[in-house]
From TrEMBL:
This is F5/8 type C domain-containing protein. It comes from Alcanivorax xiamenensis. Residues 1-14 have a biased composition (Gly residues). It comes from the Bacteria. Residues 1-28 are annotated as: Disordered. InterPro entries: Galactose-bd-like_sf.
Length: 164
């Protein structure tokens, strides 16, 4: 027996689409349902979405080798319009020190290209920000260390992802 299609006016009890948030919100924040994981030093991953952007000693996540990452999985998919990463190493472009990745399903990640994907980007002064050209549906955000040697010197103190 097939499920009936659109019966009239039932109150939409199924849970699948809660709709957009009332206003753009930092959906990475633990208080807003973001869950942090890392490929290394998992126990410190939560320092990147605790709402504290300051890079105090010991209040950041660090990897160990090139390719290590910390990621935030949101409580559901959101339309992402901007993000900010508080990281001590920045450069003329994001390559060289860190790379950034978005995932629609929380499992498959696609690299983020600042030059193509941002209207306005700030890189330097302890942070990297991007206002995205095209808002994108995402369920997770990943910051990955690309520094080839001494990768542990890259410290991420906070990740903010603005979604609605
Ligand atoms: Ca923090």
């Amino acid at each position: 027996m097939a499920l009936a299609s659109c019966g009239g006016g039932g109150g939409g009890g199924s849970s699948s689409d809660p709709g957009p948030l009332p206003e753009p919100t930092n959906v990475a924040l633990a208080d807003n349902g973001g869950v942090a994981n890392a490929s290394y030093l998992e126990e410190t991953a939560g320092l990147v979405n605790d709402g504290d952007t300051q890079p105090y000693d010991g209040y950041y996540w660090q990897g160990n080798v090139q390719g290590d990452y910390v990621q935030i999985t949101f409580d559901r998919a959101y339309t992402i319009s901007e993000f900010a990463v508080y990281v001590n190493f920045t450069g003329n472009d994001n390559a060289g020190y860190t790379s950034y990745w978005l995932s629609e399903d929380g499992e498959t990640f696609e690299p983020f290209a600042f030059t193509n994907d941002c209207n306005a980007a700030t890189i330097g002064g302890g942070m990297i920000t991007c206002e995205m050209k095209e808002p994108r549906i995402a369920r997770a955000f990943r910051a990955q260390v690309e520094m080839e040697s001494n990768a542990h010197n890259v410290h991420v103190s906070e990740i903010e992802v603005i979604g609605q």
